[in-house]
Fold these 4 entries.
Entry 1:
Amino acid sequence: MSGYFSISCGSSTEQFGWAIAPFGDDDGDGKPDFLVGAPFAGNSLGEARLYSGANFRPLATWTGRIISSTFGRLLQELN
């Protein structure tokens, strides 16, 4: 089935995929990239992960600074 893909996460407890948001074209490949939130990843600090829209490879990860702050639960593209 074309048009479907999957991205693996570390653990189901990190709640990877809680939020998904567009991110523009960060890597310059002509395809829009996207953010995926995992609010309980990184020892419950939370993470927002940037993926390539062309090949779905990871481009960057941001980690929260406060335990159980649910960083990555809400994501939004900034213009």
Entry 2:
Amino acid sequence: MTFDQASTIPLVLATAACGLYNDKISPNGGAALTAPWLEGGRSKYAGRSIVIIGGTSSVGQMGRFSALYLAVIRLTLR
């Protein structure tokens, strides 16, 4: 992995965390889920489902940390 590739990892994780765990404040609010690093957040959503378009991305992986069942939608151009 190059330095340039590695430098994007914090950005994608922060973007995913903002979308899932930020409060629902307009216009750019998140889903207001309890973050898995907070007390009780790791198992709070166990067994619950969420649809994430492009769920194989960092947002989907962050959803897995919250024990969410992902309904993954993956599109491929042919």
Entry 3:
Amino acid sequence: MAKNAEEGRQLFRRFEDVVQRFLDVSLEYWGCVPLDPVLRMANQMQRLVVRQDPQCESAKSIRDIAAQIERTNGKILS
């Protein structure tokens, strides 16, 4: 989770650097899940944010990332 898209991309870059250095694996950025009030509330209530409020930004981001995973047809690792 990130405060915004730019922070999400920065976190990804740092993670990608470590992964490439120690595992020699390349990663692809598919987006981030913004930390919004609905996500916090759903987490505290132990509920899925995509059911708590399907239209909130975090739920939309989760669905977008899940759709990208589906489009790979299970071929994430190469």
Entry 4:
Amino acid sequence: MIVREMRRLHALPSDAVRRGLPEAGIDDEELDLQRMLARMQEKMRDLEASGLQPGLDWLLEHAPESGNAVLCHGDLMQP
């Protein structure tokens, strides 16, 4: 069920959300994948969470250079 809902969320057009970001006080550039990964790196360093480094390294090595923007809910988990 969760996978189905995630697929539906990712399929929604993201244009309207992106247009509304400035009104919500969110800089569109903050959603850039490379910036997000850099913030993860800083947070890991601050929290001394070096055990997560291999996962971040994999993300950095496999990050797409570009692509279509999609909506993604960061904490959709099964109870």
